[in-house]
What we know:
The protein is of the alpha/beta class.
Amino acid sequence: MAPTSTPQTPFGRVLTAMVTPFTTDGALDLDGAQRLAAHLVDAGNDGLIINGTTGESPTTSDAEKSQLVRAVVEAVGDRAHVVAGAGTNDTRHSVELARAAEQAGAHGLLAVTPYYSKPPQEGLFQHFTAIAEATGLPVMLYDIPGRSGVPINTETMVRLAEHPRIVANKDAKGDLGRASWAIARSRLAWYSGDDMLNLPLLSVGAVGFVSVVSHVVTPELRSLLQAHLAGDVSKATEIHQRLLPVFTGMFRTQGVITCKAALALQGLPAGPLRLPLVELSPEETEQLKRDLAAGGVHL
């Protein structure tokens, strides 16, 4: 059973988009995944996103995705929301992944905008509705036009929010104006999907974060969130500014690459990457160390 939630915070407030640990030969590391999941929840995460972009979902098989969900639910499912990525650019495949995630014990689904195909807004509406109809799980939309090529327009958000199981949105659109209107009109629970905009999105109505940098700074993100909720704008801004080197450093190149490097520097399970992603160069690793240190992360 997942931890309790409210309509305002259906998946909690601080969630990590978790990497998928692999063994040195590139196989799925289920033991490492369980240890990393426990570490992240111990650090203060309310939930974990499994099989998302940061989990290298384009290069894991359907069977591996189900195995990973089962392992993470077994490790932390009694004290954290386990949300499984089920979105692809093929609606039928997405429905299959959603049902498999439900069978594996996931507490919710993350559904990214169909990428590459560039469907019209009606196509997006029907795609997300089909996923929501496929299971009894609550759904978090994932709006990231920089990767998908197509934004979810505000009118489409409002329509989708009428579905009882579409309850949240992960916003990586980078447009505070659009976010403001969509939050006000849809009443979806809004999660920042862009770490640099965590604090600004809170100011226009977001309830929490789906974060990558939370692999290394979850306590700081919780402090930022609590300061904001308490009305201490100065403290929230101070924490935000202190974390700027981390936000910058973790995205100097593709986020999974730097995230796995940061975890390795801390002795946590991560393992290699699957192509086409590649390891940081020695020079990039040294830059990452400097960035993390400047943001107060101890290695």
